[in-house]
Amino acid sequence: MKSMILAAGYGTRLLPYTGHTPKPLFTIAGRPILDWMVRNLVRAGSTAIIINTHHLNTEIEKFLTARNYGIPVKTCYEPEILGTGGALKNAAHFWDDEPFMVVNSDIFTDIDLQAVYRFHRAHTAPATLVLCNDPEFNRVSIRSDGTILDFHTADSHAPAWTFTGIHVIDPVVLDLIPDNRFSNIIDIYRELMARGKSIRTYAPQKILWDDIGTPARFRSVARRETSKTAFKSVYPRISEGSLDLLDIEGDGSDRKWFRITRKGRSIIMVDHGIRKADQTSEADAFCHIGRHLHKQGVPVPKIFFADTFSGLVCMQDLGDQHLQQVVHSAASEAAVEPLYKTIVKQLIHMSRVGFQGFEPAWTWQSSSYDRNIILEKECRYFVESFLNVYLGLGISYADVEDEFNFLAQATLQHAFNGFMHRDFQSRNIMVKAGSPYFIDFQGGRSGPLQYDLASLLIDPYVALTQARQDVLLDFCMAELSRKITLNPDSFLKGYACCALTRNLQALGAFGYLSKRRGKIQFEAYIPTALKTLRDNLGRFFPGPEFQNLKHVVEKALSQACRNSFY
Fold first, then answer.
1. What's residue 160's pLDDT?
2. pLDDT at 565 over 80
3. Is the pLDDT reported for residue 51 higher than 70?
4. Which helix (H) or strand (E) holds 162?
5. Does one domain contain both 463 and 342?
6. Which residues is 50 bridged to in the sheet?
7. Which residues contact 89 (CB under 8 A, 6 or more apart)?
8. What distance in Å separates the CA atoms of residue 500 and residue 450, rounded to the nearest whole number?
């Protein structure tokens, strides 16, 4: 049996993702769809396979060149798309005198292709089409004897089925297909039927079949199959049977979180979304950085399986309790101080060992915390997203630009650099059996330890008292002094600057998420963050360094009061 995989389409329903990756190379559970189909055909007894190509054909050819399937797998490039019929005729040199199998490259199925071929060989009709029942696509009417009545115009008096894109065809059908032009194979089948020939159908009772030609359908199948593959890799003895995918409430990002469970066992899956560009993605960064930190002994969840094109990563389940919840349920702030000290120790450890062997290429936003990040993603973000869009103050960035430039310079001058988490706050610290674990590390890069420390201590989700912040700041410096020679004055200056930059970033995020994204739950933390910014400006910088910024913050506080935040 020879076979053809139809892979020439543009994948317009899957734009913009098909702009950089051809549809057949989209991955399901870590393997390209094309690989799934080729291996299915090989198992079914295919002796040779031809794949028609057009859009991004060189990517498909490069993929096939790197693999050995044990049988010839060739491509046939179409300068202009010819349709299924035209593709079959264009590959006339490939066929022999035996019936051949044709399959679409945008389906995912467990259909027994060998059984399909045996069924076709057992009758005399020139073609067999595999059908299934999918209400969204049921368009093919069939007679009681299993032959096709009509295509695309389901007869209300006859059962309607979905054509799966899998068919077995006798070579005689090629004679009806015109040379060198577009041809729809359904039109050829209609012509055969008009000539008195029957087109048979094969419709097994229980099959898995999915059209994956749209982002929603592709993501659904990718989640299902990745869940099965990942769960089996972790719990091979209890992986058989259906899995439950339970939604977990997310936070500020667009990512989707799931808990995959069966028989009391569970793993976590996060969906970052399909890769949008041919470059390092958020999912790539999550995997590279997460595996690196875990290998270095940093308390992060173990990653079990990942399909970064699909944006899916499966990892250890750390439960549902994060640091914010622990603090709010504690009898007193003093009761959580030992936990905070453990976290500070682990933060120092992460900064030091996380930086060892860290590759800048793993990052997806920027490889380091630099001047541009401070000025654009924190200072300008604060002005535009919080002061202007959220509060409507109409502040000009130029009014505080000189002070922001000074802040950026001082922050970098006094940075104690290592691995930097970048979002080290209470909701990104899980607590399981009394031990802390760090999550959401995909924004990691090289940068100052003081930034992550400030993120932890001035965190508006928790609102530690200033006295507790001072205790933990002193504790961090004491722990560092046990490991290295530390300049306390420089470290404190860097911390003061990072406390400001982090505060600006948080307020920018709260403004953006509340106003632009409609996530108004973040408004509750704006008053605390604003007060912290005002207090730290006065505490750390009592001189004239930030005179204009202090004035702007007072205006913001007044506006916040008028908006009834307090």
1. 84
2. no
3. yes
4. strand 160-169
5. yes
6. 4, 74
7. 82, 174, 177, 178, 179, 180, 183
8. 11
The model's confidence at residue 551, banded by pLDDT at 50, 70 and 90, is very high
Helices (H), 174-281: 185-194, 215-234
Q: Which of 192, 186, 190 is nearest to 173 (CA)?
A: 192
pTM: 0.91
Task: Report the CATH number at residue 338.
Answer: 3.90.1200.10
Q: Two tokens at 250?
A: 């997310």
- Read off the tokens for 322: 């994060």
Gap between the Cα atoms of 199 and 204, Å rounded: 17
Range of the domain at 532: 323-562
My answer on whether 250 and 373 are in the same domain is: no
Q: What's the first-to-final CA gap in the chain, in angstroms?
A: 75
Residues 447, 366: Cα–Cα separation, whole Å: 11
Element housing 237 (H / E): none
* pLDDT over 70, % of the chain: 98
Number of separate domains in the chain: 3
Taking the CA atoms of the chain, what radius of gyration do you get in angstroms? 30
pLDDT at 289: 98
CB 430 within 8 A of CB 439: yes
Specify the range with the lowest mean pLDDT, choosing from 134-138, 165-169, 333-337, 534-538.
134-138
